[in-house]
């Protein structure tokens, strides 16, 4: 499938600010800001990354609102150039850096890595191809490589980009012999799981994203102008309780005034520098770790048990935060 999956979506007029000019920090400023970001990551116990189309442009997949974005050119009556198809695209330096930051705990003998969770608006499947485990990611707008059964709701990885978008029937039988209750999934039909404008966000992905964003000490937006809601507002969820918020993007975003730090540079450059400062080695993409290259179908469903387990941690965090806030009020009254 062409990377211009937007052609398959319904017409929609309110696409936000298009074609805003990009700005670049000087090399000296980028180096200084990357040091600040690395220090923030070191001091944080729970770091969440919010990824947008800007992290995939170096793979040849155009963004939407950039100077040469799909919707920016569409407004001018033009079409973008596509260097690759979804199937040809490979994870970028940023995608592989994210893997390294999540798995860094194993190398540095920490309880967990430098990054605890990823919330993505991208449907291009590059997080999946990088080898990122499903337990570390919420895909709020779907994934072009995922087929979902209409009946049992389980998700499966496709070896190629699916043929449709907008949650349409793929006219294929469910790949599962059993549903979550141990019963045969009979007559289930697979659909693509890429959202169209009118669709609700996937419940478990949204709930996990909301909880992780709220408990985060540090939310980092990478390659997104944060214009689409609710995904664009999630990085702000930790601010009420004293969390930090960082933006790495070339264009201005909807929430610049609320950020503690803004780095205007290519995301690949920023994460390469940050990983080096943290002593984290970025691996190369490997087909052996890419679920789309495996011979057997792989499931991609978020287990309900994962949601329930983290929900308990989230509730405890909220309860403790309320107690701490109440204690502070009592102390100063």
UniProtKB/TrEMBL annotation:
Enzyme active site: 141
Keyword list, A-Z: Metal-binding, NAD, Transferase, Zinc
Binding site for Zn(2+): 149, 152, 174, 185
Listed EC numbers: 2.3.1.286
Gene Ontology cellular component terms for the protein in this record: chromatin; nucleus
Any GO molecular function: metal ion binding
Protein name: protein acetyllysine N-acetyltransferase
Record organism: Drosophila simulans
């Amino acid at each position: 499938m062409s990377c211009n999956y937007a052609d398959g979506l319904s017409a929609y007029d309110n696409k936000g600010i298009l074609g805003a000019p990009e700005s670049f920090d000087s090399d000296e400023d980028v180096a200084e800001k990357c040091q600040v970001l690395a220090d923030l990551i070191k001091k944080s116990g729970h770091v969440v990354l919010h990824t947008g189309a800007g992290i995939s442009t170096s793979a040849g997949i155009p963004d939407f609102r950039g100077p040469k974005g799909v919707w920016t050119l569409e407004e001018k009556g033009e079409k973008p150039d596509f260097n690759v198809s979804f199937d040809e695209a490979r994870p970028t330096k940023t995608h592989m850096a994210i893997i390294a930051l999540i798995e860094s705990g194993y190398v540095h003998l920490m309880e967990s890595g430098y990054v605890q969770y990823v919330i993505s608006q991208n449907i291009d499947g590059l997080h999946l191809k990088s080898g990122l485990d499903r337990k570390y990611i919420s895909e709020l707008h779907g994934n072009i490589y995922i087929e979902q059964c209409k009946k049992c709701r389980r998700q499966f990885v496709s070896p190629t980009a699916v043929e449709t978008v907008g949650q349409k029937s793929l006219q294929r039988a469910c790949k599962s012999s059993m549903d979550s209750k141990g019963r045969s999934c009979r007559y289930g039909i697979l659909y693509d799981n890429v959202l169209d404008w009118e669709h609700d966000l996937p419940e478990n992905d949204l709930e996990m994203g909301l909880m992780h964003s709220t408990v985060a000490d540090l939310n980092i937006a990478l390659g997104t102008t944060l214009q689409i809601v609710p995904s664009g507002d999630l990085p702000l969820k930790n601010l009420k309780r004293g969390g930090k918020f960082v933006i790495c993007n070339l264009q201005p975003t909807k929430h610049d005034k609320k950020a503690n730090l803004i780095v205007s540079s290519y995301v690949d450059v920023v994460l390469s520098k940050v990983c080096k400062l943290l002593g984290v080695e970025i691996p190369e993409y490997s087909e052996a770790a890419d679920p789309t290259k495996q011979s057997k179908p792989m499931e991609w469903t978020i287990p309900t048990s994962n949601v329930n387990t983290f929900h308990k941690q989230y509730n405890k965090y909220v309860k403790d935060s309320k107690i701490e806030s109440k204690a502070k009020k009592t102390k100063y009254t």
